[in-house]
């Protein structure tokens, strides 16, 4: 993610902004340009002077994306991926759904920056609320259909689940990045003929998935996973290892882009001249994996130190071992060197 500027007054803008706090201009994100634009009173985007129309979910305050006026679609590229949204007539569902959509827009922004396909014909989302008398909704993926439990958008409920499952990290955006990773395994590995390379790093994904998850949840918490995996859940099965690493890769490039947008300079690394400094002045979407890894470690040290200053838990409770770095490097490779699979 990066920062933006109001075309009318130059004020600093963030991805979710809908009104410029300085000049009062209406704002909207233009997905085809990857930029936030101010609008004239008659609906022209100041970015390029062209007319735009709002995604239909703008009316629900659940989106801030705009489309070319002549576009046949009435939903933006993020919202048109919705297969099911919660019943908005039920009290409390609307604010939770808005959080879902905000996280999904951030996901789609990163996928677009990586030039990864996400056509609505292949990838779709269902945001499901629990119903009285029915089993709780399970978050998961099946052949491009991602289901996210609406309860995950409730901060208190999500934190309770994180604690119950002994997880160091659990976010709504993290869920989406993890689940979409399962679909990109199909696109980037399976359909691209790179399964042998995958198995050399992650293991044999053809092993019984249900049995592996059952065994994982039956075991008491342990540290056996450390060193070879990014998280305990990643050790459950190669598919989960991939999805955890894929989500982590998206965390990395998104955070590094924002750090570079702020012009951050951090200094926990000693170079050959005896200078402690790391300039985050490159695009992680164009950099090699080695540069990404070299910048990521000092950035996360800084992020954690700042959180501790505020008395909050570490923002980044992970350690990148050499085996995990190799897995991330494979993901970087298949993302940037993928064949056209028709998705």
UniProtKB/TrEMBL annotation:
Coiled-coil positions: none
Residues in Zinc-ribbon domain copies: 3-89
Pfam families: Peptidase_Mx, Zn_ribbon_DZR_6
InterPro entries reported for this sequence: UCP012641, Zinc-ribbon_6_bact
Superkingdom per UniProt: Bacteria
Protein name per Swiss-Prot or TrEMBL: Zinc-ribbon domain-containing protein
Species: Falsiroseomonas selenitidurans
